[in-house]
Amino acid sequence: MAAPRSFTWTRRVFLTLLTGFVLLPVYVMVSSSLKPLEDVSSQFHWLPSNLTVRPYVDIWSTVPLAKYFVNSLIVAGAATVCSVVIAVFAAYAVSRYEFRGKRVFSVTVLSTQMFPGILFLLPLFLIYVNIGNATGIALFGSRGGLILTYLTFSLPFSIWMLIGYFDSVPRDLDEAALVDGCGPLRALFKVVVPAAVPGIVAVAVYAFMTAWGEVLFASVMTTDATRTLAVGLQGYSTQNDVYWNQIMAASLVVSVPVVAGFLLLQRYLVAGLTAGAVK
Fold it and tell me: Where is each ABC transmembrane type-1 domain found (predicted)?
């Protein structure tokens, strides 16, 4: 049955307005990043009169953006790898085995998502400082401490999401692998993990995006040597001036890895997010 003509036109108008609403901030960022600072600080014009790529050159010298980029890449990459590896083992154990406290563990993992992250800021700060004073292990102000912090956010969601995905993988595959002589770990990596690639990719993208754009904990748990991009962008605002064109240019540059990764893994991400919805 064909949709009414009024519905078709209403959908087109709505989607056009929605697309314009989404792309408008992106256009403002791009156009502002191609203007001199004087033009950005004055009255806004939709069409730039003086185009320049100088802001994209100056962003690397105004603040140590390359160092912040490396810090963010190391922290986000390590947090992603740790989240995926731990979540795979934990989710597989919950999905395939029965043990005492299984339901409590699952509910606890899911309930941690109800608490705002700011509640953990002061406790983690005190824990890191006390561990450093007692053992000499410098967690506060280090990349390792920031990685552990991000695991407290990404790991519970990753485990909960992979549990649902592993539940959708038929247990007959595991049993067939065990009959063929595979052990539990070999069955996991040879059979279950290849079948769960979309869910694992979705978890990896979520963990990476969470660590890449996090600001609150990175602003407290880092020093000048370990500062990440999300916090380092504040360096373009000084006491004398705000380099708006460089802020826009840097924001576009730091968003490239996330956008590129999302576009490349979009097919797996959509499949992973919808996995286990119908059983």
Answer: 69-265
